[in-house]
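INFO batch 0412 | record 1 of 1 | parsing
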Amino acid sequence: QVQVVESGGGLVQAGGSLRLSCAISGRTFSLYYMGWFRQAPGKEREFVAAIAWSGGSPYYTDSVKGRFTISRDNAKNTMFLQMNSLKPEDTAVYYCAASVTGWRIPPPRNSAEYTYWGQGTQVTVSS
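INFO prediction complete | emitting tokens
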């Protein structure tokens, strides 16, 4: 079992920044990838970014490239999502997720390939 807990959401004006954190505990040796997803009201959950827990290039959805940065600190069992130049369309509940299904390139972007999920943290960007 792996447990993940997000934090760091909030209300920010357009153009501002937020940093989300994901604290990871449990069987971290079983992790292959960590990812961030988001779900806006009335929309399906969508992939945002992913990174291999052991290192390697991150992977982003096109709408956040150049604005968001995913990173991890293995020593502290924590993953981050630095979000800059935020836009109102970034407003959503952001979820941290862990994949234990094995190696693949690029990292998985289908939510079904992630087994463990956090409760989500709300990000609201005002115009």
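INFO post-check: The chain has a mean pLDDT of 95.
INFO record closed
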